[in-house]
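Researcher: Please predict.
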Amino acid sequence: MVVHTPPGHASMVAYDVDNAKNPNFLGTVAGDDTVIVVLAEGVDREVAGKIVRDMFPKLG
């Protein structure tokens, strides 16, 4: 899953996703304004997206 952030915020988002220890997420890779979230097998991307949106409501 790709998550877009404001410039300079991707590492903070990735850090928080990784530290949430959610079994739906295997890990992240962060750039400057983009995070790739690796989903566990069989995870619905809509469900995963809602989890991230709930964690970061300002990302919309």
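Model: Strands lie at 2-4, 25-30, 34-39.
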